Amino acid sequence: MSARRLAIVDTGLRGFDGHCFDYDREVASAARAVGLEILVVSALGPTSTAKFRLAGGDCVDDGLSFAPFGEESGLAEATPRLGSRMIGAVSRFAPDFAPFLRRIKGPSFSAPNPAANAVMAGRFMALLAKHGIGPDDHVFIPTPDAALFAGLLMHLRQTAPAGGSPGGPVWHFVLRRDLDETGPLAREIRHTIHLLADLSSQEAEGWRLRLYADTARLCRQYRARFPLLDFSELPIPVRDMNAYPHRDSDGYINIVMLGSARREKGFHHLGEVIEPLRRARDRGIRARLVVQTNPNLIGGDPGIAATTNLLRRAPSELVTCIDGPLTPELYAGFLTAASIVLLPYDPALYLGRSSGIFAEALALGKPVIVPDSGWMAADHGVTFAYPDGLGGAVAQALAAYDDLRAGAQSRSARWSQRHNAARLVSTLLRP
User: Fold this and answer.
1) How far is it, in rounded angstroms, from Cα 137 to Cα 125?
2) Distance CA 311, CA 291 (A)
3) pLDDT of residue 117
4) 195 and 312 housed in the same domain
5) What is the pTM of this model?
6) d(CA 180, CA 349)
7) Which of 51-55, 260-264, 363-367 has the lowest mean pLDDT?
């Protein structure tokens, strides 16, 4: 019997823009296309308004109504998660993509607090039951959240000991971080490793718990560390950029870097790009850096403000700074106008970890500049030794641009066939 519903549980979704929103919307659209109803549990802020723009259509705004979720438990202050509260929201997407939203606000999960996690997991399960999520349905958790995973495993062990079937939905949990990552989420990753080490294959099979990673390299990491568990590679749901208006390149070779300004994405090294652009200009090559400069945090990571000021002082014909977050339409416009996509991501944090911008660039047939280690370093453009080789890589890409573009365009169809939302949904629904 085919599934009636797909519940997308994404604690990273905090607004109606950005990568998480695009990811979840693509999955929801593809699932609805095969007849599934959609339920979304997310971390939307209390003043959020849904803003979906259909291709060629109008923008639809819907307000939010509030309902209590566990506020009486008093756990909000006792169980902080990464310094922020967990906000839960449920949205049911109508066929015309105008969403009907209900707000559910409550305390956070907390990885090191088993009692709090158990209570919150029970409330979370009750929420799914309230909306009719049952044995014929699927729950998809695309954003890594060790505390949510911990609470879920506790609940399943209480309701279905020894891996016996609890009569619940099929659970799909995506692991998207390197096991040896040393970044700000290292503590959460270590907790996830502990949870996986305690998980038996009998439990996973009995509870219908399916584990994924969204790159082949990440899959190999998890399989090597946990050989008794099954990890499948999940396609990346790359959206169709042709549904959005395209922006003209104005006759420039546009080297584009999108996404919030972060150290982990190498933003603080962008000063090295200015000199090769200046030398190219002196040789009559019209090339410029187009870069999004809004930080992901108030004040930004160390070094971000200084780099931003340096870029803003550069000649306008060499550097264009994009201030503030981008709407999906503006994001798509800048990406489609890119000649080369710049991704100088720290390989220590992106050894196997995926990148939505990288996936979209390849689907559009754009050559990329990436570090020479990590999963993105396959034959997709120019690679460099991180971080010192960035300027040389830009010069190399400008010199070989025509050949790089031809190669990227020849590979785009194959990449798009592999990474799309329809294939992701079919992977989730396989027997």
Assistant:
1) 13
2) 9
3) 72
4) no
5) 0.83
6) 9
7) 51-55
Nearest in space to 288 (alpha carbons), one of 244, 256, 258: 256
Q: What is the DSSP letter of 88?
A: E
Classified as helix, coil or strand, 396 is helix
Tell me, what's the pLDDT at 391?
A: 98
Q: pLDDT digits over 288-345, tens only?
A: 999 999 987 766 788 899 999 999 999 999 999 999 888 888 899 999 999 999 999 9
- 368 neighbors 345 (Cβ within 8 angstroms): no
- Give CA angle at 400 (396, 403), nearest 5°: 145
Cα–Cα dist 70/56, whole Å = 41
Point out the domain boundary residue: 179, 202, 234: 234
Q: So what's the pLDDT on residue 85?
A: 26
Q: Which CATH number does the domain housing residue 10 bear?
A: 3.40.50
Judgement on whether residues 142 and 254 belong to the same structural domain of the protein: no
CA atoms within 13 A on the CB side of 60: 16
| CA atoms of 102 and 90, how far apart (whole Å) | 5
**Residue 14: predicted pLDDT:** 64
Mean pLDDT of 375-386: 89
Select from 4, 61, 1 the least CA-distant residue to 32. 4
Quick one: which of 34, 164, 40 has its CA closest to 429?
A: 34
Whether residues 209 and 337 share a domain: the answer is: no
Structural domain harbouring 19: 5-234
More confident residue, 273 or 348: 273
What are the structure tokens assigned to 277, written together? 């652009």
Instruction: Report yes or no on 424 lying in a domain.
Output: no
Cα 224 to Cα 222: distance, rounded to the nearest angstrom: 5
Write the CB contacts of 168 (distance below 8 Å, at least 6 apart in sequence): 125, 133, 134, 135, 156, 159, 207, 208
